[in-house]
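CHAIN AND CONFORMATION:
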Amino acid sequence: MNKERYLAEIERRLLKHFSASREGYKAPAEDRHRLEGFMQGAAFLGFATSQDMAELMERAHLTVFGKTIEQRRVEHGSLWQDSVINYDKYDQPAYERKSS
């Protein structure tokens, strides 16, 4: 496997992922995880840095949506909200929570 083929495959997968999103399909978690692993593999193999991967993802997003990830995030803010989970109850040790 050479660097160019590997990075081209990542770009192909990013374009496919973003195109599906544009069409209203949510990619299965497995596909997203594979893509993330592929991107981490590029860094591990020395084919690209994390910054290179971020730039590749930005370019693919711009190609598919015609706007940057940040622009789309601002426009669709409610869709990008991370779920907020209150973990306060876990501050207390489990054995204390169980007895109360």
Notes: The mean pLDDT is 85. The radius of gyration is 19 Å. Residues 4 and 47 are 8 Å apart (CA to CA).
